[in-house]
Amino acid sequence: MDAAPQDEGQELPHWLRPGQRVPPQEALRHIQGLCAAWPDLYAALFVVLATHQELPREVLAVAIKQFRADLDAFTREDVVSLLTAVWNGGKSGFEAVLRTRANSPKRAASLSWVKD
Asked: Long-range contacts for 76-85 (Cβ within 8 Å, ≥24 apart)?
């Protein structure tokens, strides 16, 4: 007999269940683990964005930049644009933004308390 509907999702970590909010330090650990698990930048951005939808993209960008050396040359705003492209444009949108951002001149960070 199949498991009862209320048992669905029990194998998921609590932080992946709908409506769950986690403290910032725990979310940061999750993001670090996801960035390490997916070597492909597109896949890493997609999975972080999909699993942390409750966090603003600006916050996700700062967190992701901490754990992805391939984003060192990008500003926080660039990473926000990449996240938006991943969500709205899929792989082709991501690649288009990646090409344009990689060649654009870098701007100074607008948030003095955030280290890009």
From this structure: 76/109, 76/111, 76/114, 76/116, 77/107, 77/110, 78/104, 82/45, 83/45, 83/49, 83/57, 84/57
pLDDT tens across 5-44, in order? 455 556 878 777 777 778 888 999 999 999 999 999 999 9
Spell out the residues 6+ positions from residue 71 whose beta carbon is closer than 8 angstroms to its own. Answer: 41, 64, 65, 78, 79
Q: Residue 40: name the closest of 9, 15, 71, 6 by CA.
A: 71
Q: Which residue has the tokens 């194998």?
A: 11
How far, in Å, CA of 26 to CA of 41, rounded? 22
Q: For residue range 48-97, what is the model confidence (pLDDT) as tens digits? A: 999 998 889 999 999 999 999 999 999 999 999 999 999 887 777 778 77
